[in-house]
Automatic annotation (TrEMBL):
Example GO biological process: positive regulation of fat cell differentiation
Keyword Cytoplasm found: yes
GO cellular component: cytoplasm
Family under the similarity heading: Belongs to the AAMDC family.
Keyword terms: Cytoplasm
Protein name: Mth938 domain-containing protein
Length: 129
């Protein structure tokens, strides 16, 4: 569910629990989600054939990078089972975007802090292991 807002600020993540994420201003609940200035949607691993290992692929983050962000936060799951290969980190950096890879609760806190400061921040978050 995408939303367009005049300010195009990064939407706050309203809640996070095992298997559930809610983004402010969006009625649906996500298991894994992608967020960017002005919108969010479910992160469906089947679209790119992603799995915990080898982990997050450039194809998983490319959509968010195209939204004009300066920083990408990647949430690796509650117990950090989701891998983030250096090739994906390099791919993000080559686009001129900073990247932070964190355990999901820490990632959401970091993302919300930055979004609250008005940063052009995007994120991809895994809400289970």
């Amino acid at each position: 569910m995408q939303q367009r807002r005049g300010s195009m600020s990064s939407p706050e993540i309203a809640s996070l629990s095992w298997g559930h994420m809610k983004v402010k201003g969006c009625s649906s609940s996500y298991k894994d989600c992608k967020v960017w200035p002005g919108g969010s949607r479910a992160w469906d691993w089947r679209e790119t054939g992603t799995d915990h290992y080898p982990g997050v692929q450039p194809a998983d983050v490319e959509e968010v990078l195209k939204k004009g962000i300066d920083l990408l936060v990647i949430g690796r799951g509650m117990s950090e089972a989701l891998q983030v290969p250096s090739s994906t980190v390099d791919f993000v950096k080559q686009k001129g975007v900073d990247v932070r890879v964190l355990q999901t609760e820490k990632a959401v806190a970091e993302y919300n802090k930055l979004a609250g400061q008005g940063a052009k921040v995007g994120g991809v978050f895994h809400s289970t292991c």
